[in-house]
Amino acid sequence: MVQVIWLVVTVLALFTVGYLGYSRYLAQFVELDDSRETPAHKYEDGQEYVPAKKPVLLGHHYSSIAGGAPIVGPITAGVVWGWAPALAWIAIGNPLLGSVHDFVSLSSSLRHDGKSIGYIIGEYVGERGKNMLLWFAFLTIVLVVAVFALVVAIVFNAYPEAATASLVYIVLAVLFGVYLYQLNLPFLPGTLAFVVAMFVGVYAGIQFPIALFEPAARAPAETFVLFSGSGAWLPGASSFNGNTAAWVPLILVYGAIASALPVWVLLQPRDYLSSFLLYAGVGGALVAIVVGTFFTNPTQPLVTNLEPYYGFIGRSGAPLFPLLFITIACGTISGFHSLVSSGTTSKQLNKESDARVIGYGGMLGEGLLATVALATVAIIAPDVGGGIGLALPTFAAGGGVILSSFGIPTDFGGPFMALVLVSFLLTSTDTAVRLGRYMMEEIVGTPETPVEEFATNRYGNAFVQSLPAYILITSGSWLTLWQLFGGANQLLAALALLTATVWLANWDDSKQLLSTGLPMALMTTITSLGLLWLAFHDNLYAKFLNPEWMASAGTFAMVSAVVQIVLALVLVYLALSLAKIGYDNIKDARSSGGGGGGGRPQPSDD
Predict the structure, then answer these.
(1) Burial of 470 (0-12, 13-18, 19+ CB in 10 A)
(2) Predicted local distance difference test score (pLDDT) of residue 106
(3) Which backbone phi and psi does 146 adopt, to 5 degrees?
(4) Could you give a single Gene Ontology term from the biological process aspect (predicted)?
């Protein structure tokens, strides 16, 4: 057994080197300049383009990118292959790949009026490449909305305390938005008052937990259940339970409404306030590991009870390469972050120099969350398997053990860590829906038909995203699609790095392309191989060529397997096609001497 603190020390050391050294170089490389007017000031409209103070925007950005995936991924990978491969991928991959990805996505969007990565690549390779990337991103967004809504519902079912506290801090966020942007009252005193009120809301959640229907077995006996019965009649109840199934549509409706509101009403203030809860959870757990190692005797020793390595073929029979790199996406590198960076964050950046701490530093912060998640599973050491259903209780239970180093009872620490997880997820859910609207607006351009009007309308677009997400969840097939979600996410990261590389190549022929080009090539190769494995081994070979499976599988199971094969192959085709288009553009730009446009787009011949 190894003390958990060494996992934390390893990550902190490499992250510190990355931020102090590599991020400084990248900031100079893309020529961040505070004398330039950012899109937030240039196009300020009080709706989407709203300049934000650096701590407020960091809170929004960090809350938006750090959803459930950096918790589910490391926990699942640690159980299957051991904590050492998972730790190595987080500690090395984050500063060299993921943080670079987030930073250059934000920087490139800044130089293109806050537009998305799809728009940016379209400026260089033409309308076909733009639409391919935007459709890829939009489909990924639907998967993101589905998984985040499901995970929030699972947490609300397991920890009804989190449901009450979440409602409280959403109300507080709206009041804080009015306080800041309508009443123009002092920032720091307001921050102090509302943060204190938010933690009071956490206490209220623990004292007055609520559920829609009969909750999970671990729920407190005093849980207030709004509706009688089990809710077994609800869509999806057979796959999860009635309470979880009941929360799903409410969360999707919340995400739709929140995504349509001006950013100052809910998004900015809520993300800023919830960031304090996140910092307390992640930072508190890291400090608790130090305290528990050197100063106190916690109820359970903070040592790894998982093996460091279970072999190349893990405990579930899955090969470490390439599936580890799909299983752990967020926490190391995530394409969803490019949509946040170039979707909402770039429209709120007050000055260019803020991009370093928010883009590069924010991703390092998510890596710390992934490290905490890995530490919780290393301590608890659950049995192999279980996916989301295993990961979420493990994070809360393991986090409660870690916080016991402060003398906090585990029956308080566990629900608190569940609240930390939910605060990440809710912010990511409605941010994802808002980003999906941006994607569709860029695909459609100027709407000319009623269908296009509906697709780009802020309420109609939310419906377009939420309905297929709800169908995915209630069909019961979502858990089997987790790695496809990871594959789509990682391929989107590769395409975002491709977009940045194309931008740099067209900007100036003296710009080196290794910082973005090598991670792009690595992620394209690994993720394509992972998706092909899922298509041909996990579905074609293990199912359709397996007589036992064919004899027992129903029609729905067969259709689901076919859909997974088709999805995997379509994702790989889109990614490789875009990579070819981008490569041709880079080659042409370098042969003609580069764009020389100071980071601005040059006309495309397509």
Answers:
(1) buried
(2) 95
(3) -65, -50
(4) cellular response to starvation
Handedness of CA 109, 112, 116, 118 (dihedral sign): negative
Q: How many residues are listed for the chain in this entry?
A: 606
Phi-psi region of 234 (alpha: psi -120 to 50; beta: other; left: phi over 0): beta
Q: Answer positive or negative: Cα dihedral of 577, 580, 581, 582.
A: positive
Residue 433 tokens, joined: 């829906």
pLDDT for the residue 602: 47
Q: Which residues of 49-74 are buried (b: 16+ CB within 10 A; e: fewer)?
A: bbbbeeebbbbbbbbbbbbbbbbbbb
The two tokens of residue 587 are 């080659």
Instruction: Using alpha carbons, select from 508, 598, 602 the residue that is nearest to residue 35.
Output: 598
Q: Would you state the pLDDT for residue 493? A: 92
DSSP symbol at 184: -
Task: Report whether 341 contacts 13 (CB < 8 A).
Answer: no
Q: Compute the distance between CA of residue 366 and CA of residue 67 in angstroms, rounded to an integer.
A: 9
Element (H or E) spanning 366, and its range? helix 362-380
* CA distances from residue 230 to 62, 245, 399, 540 in whole angstroms, order as listed: 36, 10, 29, 37
Element (H, E) at 210: strand 210-211
Report the C-alpha gap between 151 and 421 in whole angstroms: 9
Cβ neighbours around 188 below 10 Å, total: 7
Helix intervals (H) in 381-409: 387-403
* Residue 438 burial class via C-beta count within 10 angstroms: exposed 0-12, middle 13-18, buried 19 and up: buried
**Of 75, 73, 70, residue with least CA distance to 378:** 75
DSSP state of 3: B
pTM to 2 decimal places: 0.82
Residue pLDDT, tens place only, 219-257: 787 888 999 888 888 887 877 889 989 999 999 999 888
Dig out the tokens for 69 from the structure. Answer: 């995936």
Helix (H) / strand (E) element for 562: namely helix 555-591
What is the C-alpha separation between 485 and 488, in angstroms, rounded? 5
Structure-token pair, residue 524:
């394209």
Kind of pairing, strands 210-211 and 224-225?
parallel
For residue 225, what is the enclosing H or E element?
Answer: strand 224-225
Give residue 459's identity as a one-letter amino acid code: Y
DSSP 68: S
553 Cβ contact list (under 8 Å, min separation 6):
543, 561
CA distance 427 to 66: 9
CB 44 within 8 A of CB 51: yes
Residues of the chain with pLDDT under 70: 67, 296-301, 383-392, 475-482, 556-557, 560, 593-606
